[in-house]
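Before anything else, study the sequence and fold tokens given here and see whether the fold suits the sequence. Record follows:
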Amino acid sequence: MKNRWIALYVENQVGVLAKVAGLFSGKCYNLQSLTVGTAEDETVSRMTICVKSNDVTFEQIKKQLNSMIEVIKVMDLTNVPIHMKEILFVKVTKIDASQKSEVFQIAKTFDEHGHVRVVDVGPDSVLLECMLTESKNNDLIRLLNTNYKYVEVVRGGAVAIESISTTNR
């Protein structure tokens, strides 16, 4: 079992997301992540889906998605060089001034090209906005949870696009 990535181009119509999600729930496939947005053509949406599965199950998923009328194109991104980011908000609360400084340092350490920003600060809290890979976001959350008692996490699903020349998961 490993994470598998699929990009779908689907008709941008009411109910298509529900049908795709229904396929996964009806077959008891657990979605790790699902993001949807309008593509360059407003009549088309692009979904980025992560599912944890074995090879056989993943092949079934791709075939079932391909058979849906609303699905225009299915792309397996699992072994393709891609650029992927996941949006994450992390709020660390009930901290003193020195701990706030530590959170700022942690943000600076994880920052790559402006992808981790302090977006809000309160008397006893710091809010970070992160656009990193899933694994780097996991590392950041793990570090914050180790060092601080009150950590609130909100994650969006990952978005991905095929790379032109390099791999950057």
Remarks:
- The mean pLDDT is 91.
- Residues 89 and 129 are 5 Å apart (CA to CA).
- The longest helix spans residues 97-110.
- Residues 82-162 form a domain with the Alpha-Beta Plaits fold (CATH 3.30.70.1150).
